[in-house]
Structures are given as C-alpha cells and as structure tokens.
Amino acid sequence: MQPTPSDATTSPRMAVVVACVALFTDMLVYGILIPVLPLLPAMAEAGPSATGLLFAAYAAALVMVTPIAGRVVDKRGSRGPLLAALVGLACACLLFTIGGPYWLLLTARTLQGAAAGLSWVAGLSLIAATVPLQRRATYLGLAMSMVSVGALAGPPLAGWLAGLGGHSAPFLLAAALLMIDGALRLAFVRPTSPPSDDPPTALDVLRTPGCWPVVALILIGAAVTSCIEPVLPMQLAREFGVGSAGIGMLFALLTLVAACLNPLVGACLPRVSLRALTLVGAASAAAGLLLVGVGPNLPVITAGLVCLGSAIALLVAPASALIGVQGAMATPPAIGGAYSLNNLAYAGGLVLGPALSGPLTEHLGFTHACLTLAGFLALTVPTFIRLPRKYAAATAESIQIRDRRGQHP
C-alpha cells in the first residue's frame, strides 16, 4: 500500500523555515488588523454589530476550511495548500488596502480566515512529515513560537506604520513579507505524488487509540489562552487604572513568555515525563488564574500572566507533537487530518474560554470567576493522567500499530 504524501523530498531544514515564515506572516497580518480595522471609515459606518460579524467571519472561514485542508494535504502534500493560502492572504491584504466598502472588507476577512486554515494545517503537517522524530517536537514548538511572535509584532507595527503613512501602510509591509514568503514556498516545498488509497479524515484520526486526551489537551491549552482576554482588560482599567498601552504590554508579556518557552518545551519533550510536563502546565495555569484573580497589585497580576504564558507553552507544545503521532496511527497515515483536528480543537478552546469567563465574571465577579476557572482546571487532571507517559513510547506504539496493519514507518 502506498503511504500518504509525506513531502519527503522537501529538505527538513527548509520545511521548518517555510512553515515558520508562513505561520509568522499569517499571524502578523492578523495582528496588523487589530488596531487598524475598527478605525476604517467603512467600519465606523457599519456599526458594532457589523464589526462583530467581520471578526467572526475569520473564525468561521478557518473552521470550514480546516477539514478540507487536512484532506488535501493527505492527498496531495503541503505545497498546493501553502500556495493557495498565499494567494488568499495576498488578495485579502489587497482588499484591506482599498479599505471599503463593508462587503469588500467582509470578503477580505473571509479570505484571510480561509488562508489561515490552509497555512496552519499545511505548515505543521510539513514539519511533521519531514523532520525526524527526535527533533520534531522541538521544531513544532518553534513553529508555535513564530505564531506568538507574529501576533505580538502585528499591533505595534500597524500602529506605528499607520501613523506614518495611513491605514494602507501596514498592508504594504505585509505585501513585502508575502513576496518573501511566496518565494520560499515556491522554491523549497516539493510536489508529491498522490496516494492510491483514500486518506482518512480528522474524524478517523479522532478514533485512533488515545486520541481523545490529546484533543482535550489542545482544547484546554487554547481555553487558557483565551479565557482572560475578554475580562482582564476591564478589570485592569477599572481597579488599577491601567490604560490601553499598559494592557497591551501586559498581554505582550504573556505572549512573549509563551513564545520563548515553546521551543524549549519541545526540546525537553523526548527526555521528560509527558504526563508530568502537562500536569505542571495545568498547575501553572491554575496558579496564574489565582494570582490574576486575587492579585492586590500589578506585580502580582504580572506574575500571574507569566504563569499563564508558561502554561500555554507547557500544554500546547506537547499537544502539537502528540497529535502528529495520532495521525501516524491512522490507516493510512493522515498527517493532514491530524493537524486539521488540531486546528478544530484549538478553535473550540478559543470559543470555550470566553464562553466560560464572560458569564462567570458577570454573575460571580472577576475574582470568583478566576477561582472557578482554576477549579475547572483541577477537574481536568484525569485527562492528563491518560496521556502517554513518554513521548518516545507514544511514537514507538504508533509504529507498532502501523506495522501490525501491514504499513511501514
């Protein structure tokens, strides 16, 4: 039986470079829009409800495209989805540069979300398919760090450039980065021949042994990221008089901590207990929520945000490596299906976090909401205990399963 396209002719080193640049560019454009988009005249005329729809269009398109992206990656390799994502993001930037009318911005935002779905699945799959097992977790962690760096750099760059040259200036920078990004994708990602088998989907990957705890880990990591985003800024402004610039710096610190720790956690993954690592991540998240919730001053809250940033790395980096192992267990192997499942679970966590923190804060107050969320984390401990003890043991098990099914590692 012919295996799924593995992008094996692509250099592992260049696969990492291409994937990291692709994810960085995608998140940089996402970050650029945060301060620029609400200020466009077309958005001011459309009103708050239309603005909410515009931001929701990104998530909706990402979720809809993600399963398709996984299917295409497993049938054709990463090159096609990466190039399609580049075209979609370039068109979105062009439409954002025009700046209106509203329906054009909605089209651009939808294109941007679709491009993100393609880039995330294809980029992470490219690393998983080309990098040897011993180094894979490290480079997946590095790729997740580039996501954080792009998201961190986008808003301040956009604000500075918009002040110098108007709302179109940040998108001109994005266009220049897209040209470099496109050259890398075209030059270094090789086409692959399609498999003779019909590849499995994300649902098939979900049915592989031990997949549910991994999916839960992804969802919890994303929820930790998102639960404080809608409620902490108001608390900081109301109780401590922190302005928008200060709030931005505090959230930037959280992102920076996660970005620095992601590759380090990935490098440690083959050498330490996987369960212990993720349990430390859950404990760090709970400690962060407690410090943020009861903190009497900004230094304590800052320490809580450092704990939350550490938790993100300790939860997300192992999950991004483990989901690739689950894809290898599918029949036939489904790396694209695995990372489309990763995207869907992560998106679910981004929805779950605010869905919990918003109503809890409204009914219980900020402090009790944070304490309740920390309590919810304690209830997830059985999930972490069901993870493999060692990352190497999990990969060895995946190889044994494939061998029993008549496949080759």
TrEMBL record:
Residues 15-392 form the Major facilitator superfamily (MFS) profile domain. InterPro entries: MFS, MFS_dom, MFS_trans_sf, MFS_Vesicular_Transporter, Tet-R_TetA/multi-R_MdtG-like. CDD domains: MFS_MdtG_SLC18_like. GO terms for molecular function: transmembrane transporter activity. The keyword Membrane applies. The chain crosses the membrane at residues 12-37, 49-70, 82-105, 111-133, 140-163, 169-189, 210-232, 244-264, 276-294, 300-325, 337-357, 363-385. The keyword ATP-binding does not apply. Keywords: Membrane, Transmembrane, Transmembrane helix, Transport. Its main location: membrane. One of its GO terms (cellular component) is plasma membrane. It is found in: Cell membrane. It holds the Pfam family MFS_1. SUPFAM superfamilies: MFS general substrate transporter (SSF103473). It is a multi-pass membrane protein. This is Tetracycline resistance protein teta/multidrug resistance protein mdtg. It comes from Actinomyces glycerinitolerans.
